[in-house]
Automatic annotation (TrEMBL):
Protein name according to UniProt: DUF3473 domain-containing protein
Chain ranges of the NodB homology domain: 24-287
Species of the source: Paenibacillus hodogayensis
InterPro entries reported for this sequence: DUF3473, Glyco_hydro/deAcase_b/a-brl, NODB_dom, PuuE_HpPgdA-like
Name of a matching Pfam family: Polysacc_deac_1
Transmembrane segments: none
Taxonomic superkingdom: Bacteria
């Protein structure tokens, strides 16, 4: 079993649950081409790692994944994890109208709630696609009764990010009004005056283990928490791969072979819980 860190702070573990072909690069069709994926095996690996280390997580599940793998979604909930929405078909939120976004999230929420028998409390946009120009889309989540959003990455990249967004959990303001839901932004570290991610996706695969652990310890030492996020495909170097241009291929697949052991080491080094559990414990979230 894991050893708690020096302050036994509750960091948050999250997974974006989608197939190997779900991506949002320009001109890319999200179609698996009939190939058999390793999805079930990778999900069992992730759930097994959580069991072995006593970790709880938030699984942001696509609605179409719920339709294709209902037994997997039920198992996630049965093992005490937080099942949240990742939308229905991995469409970029800022390419949808407000109404289409609302309907997309609602469709996914309905599917997941019917599968688990429990309310869906949270949402994360595919590819962090809540940005400045569609920040008001958070109002749709409030209308749907969701309690938290985890879609904002306080960085600037060519794909996503709101670099000046708050880096702490807060209730966002839209149109001068505070929304009745929490924003749980992705973790960043400040390097030369610039926010950089360190604990999820490409950043998790890029930075050495000691850098990530040092950043988590620094956050915990100042009373903050870190959020880890990964996709099932990122723990499996043998999974099918998309044909991508060099830059996108580097971002999407760099060091996939080292992700599983790095994640397992972190889960044994720190205490991790789900977003819903963290908000219930430290804020006034009602489940």
């Amino acid at each position: 079993m894991r050893k708690p860190n020096m302050q036994d702070a509750a960091n948050m573990l999250t997974f974006d649950i989608e197939e190997w072909f779900h991506a949002n690069y320009e001109g890319l069709a999200m179609d698996g081409g009939g190939k058999d994926s390793h999805f079930r095996a990778n999900m069992e690996t992730l759930l097994g790692m959580c069991r072995d280390t006593g970790s709880k997580a938030t699984f942001f599940v696509l609605g179409c994944i719920g339709e294709q793998y209902p037994d997997v979604v039920r198992q996630i909930a049965r093992e005490g994890h937080d099942v949240a929405s990742h939308g229905y078909g991995h469409e970029l939120a800022y390419k949808q109208s407000f109404e289409a976004f609302h309907d997309d999230v609602k469709k996914s929420v309905d599917i997941l709630q019917n599968l688990t028998g429990k309310p869906v409390l949270g949402y994360r946009a595919p590819s962090w696609s809540i940005v400045e120009r569609n920040l008001h889309y958070l109002e749709a989540l409030e209308t749907l009764g969701l309690k938290y959003d985890a879609s904002i990455f306080p960085v600037r990249t060519f794909l996503y990010g709101i670099p000046d967004a708050p880096t702490h959990i807060h209730k966002p303001r839209v149109g001068g009004r505070e929304l009745d839901l929490y924003e749980v932004p992705m973790s960043v570290m400040n390097v030369a005056g610039r926010n950089i991610g360190y604990s999820g996706g490409f950043y998790f695969r890029f930075f050495p283990r000691f850098v990530i652990k040092r950043a988590i310890r620094a956050a915990n030492a100042r009373g903050a928490e870190s959020i880890v996020y990964l996709h099932p495909r990122e723990i499996d170097p043998t999974e099918h791969k998309l044909e991508l241009p060099p830059k996108e291929r580097f971002i999407h697949y760099y060091n996939v072979g080292g992700t599983r052991s790095k994640l397992e080491n972190l889960l044994r080094s720190f205490r991790f819980t789900s977003i819903a559990d963290h908000l219930q414990r430290h804020f006034d979230l009602e489940r």
